[in-house]
Amino acid sequence: MRFQRILAAAGTFVALASVSACGSSLPSADSPQGAGELLRTTLGCEHVEIAPPQDVAKVEAMGMKGINGGGQCANAAGGDGDVDFLTIEDMAAFQTAVKADEDEQDDLMIGDDFAVDPGSDDQRRKLLSAGLLFLNCTPGFHAPEGKTVEDGEVEGCATTDYSKDLD
Known about the structure:
The chain is α+β, with helices and mostly antiparallel strands. It is built from 6 helices and 8 strands. The chain has one domain. The chain is 29% helix and 20% strand. A hairpin with a 6-residue loop joins strand 7 and strand 8. The longest helix has 12 residues.
């Protein structure tokens, strides 16, 4: 299974979080299969691979808290390779772990109960159109006028439709 990539990218996933307490109505997946189906539909994945419990446990052991599943959207359209995702059961614990990692705290997308690491601007745009938002925990973050920003569950984190790296 190609889910081993998520283990190598655990630091990236520490930069992901879901915000169920914000005012936006983010898409909900309810399960790894639900998240995979949303990504398959939105990004045109060839297939979705759900991570076995032992791989999820390895990601948790690497510092990710609050997760209950994950997987990959294999060969998604408009990007380089697979798109990894995690499903979240404890948002506060997950977002606390995210805030502790200062790397890659933008361009990572969230739904109500899952997080996605897209591989291209085209994928980011498709995910924005599907209702996902970026999570940003960068100190002093401010989006330009006209962009949406809402408080996250953890002080200092926000959800937004803005990314400075999205061209």
